[in-house]
Amino acid sequence: MRRMSEPAPDPREAAFLFDLIRTRYGNRLTPEQLEGVRRGVAAVVAQSALLRAVRLSNADEPVQRFVPFRADA
Amino acid sequence: MNPVFRPVRELAEAIRARRLSPIALTETFLERLERLGPRYNAVVTVTRERALREARRAEAEIAAGRWRGPLHGIPYGAKDLLAAVGAPTTWGAAPLRAQTFDTDATVIHRLEAAGAVLVAKLAMVELAGGMGYRQPNASFTGPGKSPWGPDAWSGGSSSGSGSAVAAGLVPFAIGSETWGSILSPAAYCGVTGLRPTYGRVSRHGAMALCWTLDKLGPLALTADDCGLVLEAIAGPDAHDPSAADRTFTHAAGDPAGRRFRFGVLRGVDEGAEPAVRAAFTRSLDTLTKLGTVEEVTLPELPYDAIARTILFAEAASAFEDLIESVAIAELTAPEDHYAPYARDAILAKDYIKALRLRGVVMRETDRLLAGLDALVAPGRPATAPPLEGEFRSLHRPALDPMGAIGNMAGLPAVAVPNGFSESGLPTSLQFMGRAWADDTVLAAAHAWQSITDWHQRHPAID
User: Fold this and answer.
1) How would you label B239-248 residue by residue, b for 16+ Cβ within 10 Å and e otherwise?
2) Could you tell me how many CB contacts below 8 A there are between chain A and chain B?
3) Does the beta-carbon distance from B352 to A62 stay under 8 Å?
4) Which of A14, B157, B228, B446 has a beta carbon 3.0–4.6 Å from B129's, enabling a disulfide?
5) In chain B, % of residues over pLDDT 90
């Protein structure tokens, strides 16, 4: 595990993702609400940049145990 | 005896000795819930009919010599995200006011089996705060109010669970925590709250906010009482695959003589309100009577971002139908009408990265806690916020490393009162332990309450 320097989120990524959400839901949101969503997307993108800045090894698995299902087992 | 503000253990002894009638006890708390509950916006439904039926049964069984244990005949309230037959289960949300279920949640079922008496479904922040609310007025029952101040928020999302215990409306309550929803109301209402280890308590019949973070636990007057309740509700459940195959036995022995090893994360109280820092500093001094206190560190990681990514991604899926429907516009908090849409910006790769980082955090935290009995920290960085205004910002969320680490790693924690601000609002201290060390954190909190009296102070109510 290695922590890189503090990342700077790319504003183009936030703009692109906001456009996606505006396409999906824009018709039900007021301009004020859309502005709130825009700020929320910027926060998500900044949050994701923090995660991407940490390097993990190939063996670091996600904590999400998969168990094959069999009803009679 | 006046049963109000008495610990469950005392009430249980009086009931067992037949000095206290479960029916009379239930009537006392039903009357207080109906008279005082609205003052704190603490109650959704008073379950009078069910309560009296369960109380009569308890009284008859005890009279016949069949005492089930320390919860037999004890009234309690449940956060309104737990299904209970005969009453609505609203999840605190206006569009779900009429929602009902035809079976009890496992926790309700287990408390009934222990002889406890359900007297109320208690108020909560709508959808347990899963839409991203930023101010106290986020429930169709109104903002939860702390009994310690006319303008003080009770905390959330287990708002009614905290204020009802603090106001003496119930001897104990069940709450839930995904991130802060037990410790926050415990702190702001000046009561004791236990967040059990993830998987200790079945969540069957409880609203899902975030499958890998949700926990159910008790709020009460003492850590000892929380242990009594945990013993009754813990254990495996075929209906909930996350419920571990472990039972829990509460050891209520005299803590005198036990020495604890406490750790304090470097800088854990930085940025906290002055009254909180002052109380925490005094608490660290007091804790030296119980053991050692040492400063410790964890690797520098984006703890809040990891926990928030997991929470937001899972909540977006858990409430997909509601978010996609027009019903979201019926929620109480205006920000809940639109804030969840931003979570569509979380990419699958980033969610998986958060789950991989979660494994690192779990291992690093366990390595640290293996040499300690508990990490200690302020229960919350501030006293109860006012009812008006935002307590956090959408684009600059308050950092909460203890909450992020403890919840993403599924670790148990107990919050206990440890002082008051100049304006009379309670402050809180938390003990957080290793996974499955619920007994250790309860013992530490019990030891704390054996040498302090903050938990014995109650607001002026009547």
Assistant:
1) ebebbbeeeb
2) 105
3) yes
4) B157
5) 94
